[in-house]
Each structure stands twice: as structure tokens, then as C-alpha cells.
Amino acid sequence: MATMRERAAQGLKAGDTFTLTRTFSEEDVEAFARVSRDYNPVHFDLRYAGAKGFEAPVCHGLLVASMVTEVGGQLGWLASGMRFRFRRPVYLGETIVCELTIVEIGVRGRARAEARFTNDLGQVVLESEVTGYVPGSEEKIVLNAMIEEGDPTNAIR
After folding, report:
1. Rounded CA separation 103/134 (Å)
2. Strands (E), 1-94
3. When you count CB atoms within 10 A of the terminal residue's CB, does the N or C end of the chain come out lower?
4. What 3-state class would DSSP assign to 99?
5. Whole-angstrom Cα distance, residue 112 to residue 103?
6. How far apart are CA 7 and CA 154, in angstroms?
7. What is the dihedral of CA 46, 22, 96, 69, to 10 degrees?
8. What's the predicted TM-score (pTM) here?
């Protein structure tokens, strides 16, 4: 089965779907806080999270949403817009499945995709719409060359 990067190099089309699964850890939340400087106590303190109505500290919403950027990075998608609807909290240790489907690709590679994120209970935790540009013919040539070279910039091989 072709990787996401290989599928992008072959050419993307409306209806293509990509799925990622990730379990968020305490280390992920701490690393995201360092990078984003978001140290809201709802992500770290049980008492504060409880006062907000949560069972435990919750993952940063944008950390969970970053699964969309992981797919985009694999595809060489250049985003121009993102919209998120946070439906439920995501707790440490939960496994989240992100399913992104390309809805349309127009002229010059302008595209729109929708993503749905579910937890291990099958509950929708996040919905997203992403707009941007899929790789054109020149970029696909480069992606194919990168793949032949071992894809040195791709963390997922």
C-alpha cells in the first residue's frame, strides 16, 4: 500500500481519504505547551480541570487538531485556511483517529478537505475544514525524486 507521500506524488483527487491514529501522552502535552507557550492550567492541574467541568486535565485542542497538519505535511498540501469545531475534550491516553477526505480540487490545485476526529469510544471530538493547494505537476516531480532518494525530510517512512 502506498504511503501518503507516495499517493500525493502520484496525484490526489476528490474522494481520497487519509487516516491517522494517535494516542496523546503527557509528554506530548508538555512539549506542545513549551512550543505554543500555552500553559493553561486546564491542561495540567486536576483541580482546575475539575473546576472547568472536566474529568481530568485535557489535551490542547490545537495539539489534537495538528493531526490535520500531519496529513497535510505528508501530502505536501499548502494550507490557506483551517476551521475547527471542538466537540468533546481529549484526555491523556485517549486514542484519536483523524480521517481526512479531500472534498474538491479545482483549477490550479485549489482544494478543500474535511476531517473528522473520533475517540476510542467512536465519539466525535473534533471536526475540521481545511483549504489550500495540492501539489501540482512540478511539485509531484520533486516528491517522486525525494521518495527515490529515501525521502530525507519525511519523518514517516
Report:
1. 12
2. 17-23, 78-86
3. N
4. strand
5. 6
6. 14
7. 100
8. 0.92
Closest by CA position to 130, among listed 72, 60, 81:
81
Nearest to 21 by CA among 116, 98, 118, 110: 98
Whole-angstrom CA distances from 70 to 49, 58, 65, 78, 121 are 28, 21, 9, 12, 23
Question: Chain-wide mean pLDDT for the chain?
Answer: 95
- 18 in Cβ contact with 100 (< 8 Å): yes
Residues in the chain: 157
All three cell numbers of 136: 501540482
What cell was used for 119? Answer: 475517540
Contact between 3 and 156 (Cβ < 8 Å): yes
pLDDT at 155: 64
Q: Which CA distances in Å does 42 have to 39, 50, 61, 62, 156?
A: 8, 8, 11, 14, 31
What pLDDT is attached to residue 153?
Answer: 73
Q: In this structure, what are the phi and psi dihedrals at residue 24, rounded to the nearest 5 degrees?
A: -90, 135
